[in-house]
Amino acid sequence: MSAPRYDVLCIGNAIVDVIARTEEDFLTAQRMAKGAMMLIDEQRAESLYAAMGPATVISGGSAGNTAVGAASLGGRAAFFGKVREDQLGRIFSHDIRSMGVHFPTAPATGGPATARSFILVTPDGERTMNTYLGACVTFGPDDIDEETVKASKISYFEGYLWDPPAAKDAIRKAAAIAHSAGREVAITLSDSFCVDRYRDEFLFLMRTRTVDLVFANEHELLSLYQTSDFATALDQLRKDATTAVVTRGAAGALVATRDGVVDAPAEPIRELSDTTGAGDLFAAGFLYGRATERDAKTCLRLGAIAAAEIIQHVGARPQTSLRDLAQQAGVAI
Description:
Helix content is 39%, strand content 21%. The protein is α/β, with parallel strands linked by helices.
């Protein structure tokens, strides 16, 4: 097996985030489930944008954020995701490439516009997302660049990709290529509502070893096993997944395998501003650590450092070098 050219390949919806601060009553008036991600059509996207307050436009998308985070740590990252050849698509492409991420996916020349996610942040820092998938629904098997998959130590994809039908075939293709090259495949469950939609399919991916590594937060884990008891869910997860990473907010995070559980605390922060991207950046730190063969404790620490940076400002892309922050925290990079 040849040495990998990339530490992490991230596959997901290429989305431009439109972020605004709001109050709880706005969510109620707009009939939104706080903390969830809802899929919306283009008409709803336009009406919501008109109703929102002043907004910040920043490139985002779960897997894209993870790729940028890995690059900020000094990792070699790649990304697959579909944009259209339009203004937002050009913004997204420029932003991710400017961070040093390899982005070979060709833009669509027709069809739906580049995806947008309208993110409402309440005073407690919780984010509620309304996503118009746009061009993302055209992402399919032809967008999987075989050589990039083979050259990536870990291929990681977001559970949100299970919404556009063609993307499922793309992920199965990428997983087969990765495994044939002796590489690992990872999934993030994305959010509890996504788990509700695809519970059986996600469990199938884990139990058939289509994925080797699973990321979930506490809410997603409880949803996956339809229980309110964390210990029960974790015990079942250890049976179903080869390796699982579970984040628990301020309570830290853990790595679970059949052999046992390793946990680590969250990093201290000055002030919680916006939780958008916390899980994405935690995954970036952990994946970078795993790709560079760090032990589980160090992988968790790198994830915690990356997540702590992102939740202290608006937007899901790092504003400070994560490599510098890790070194300042005493983690050798």
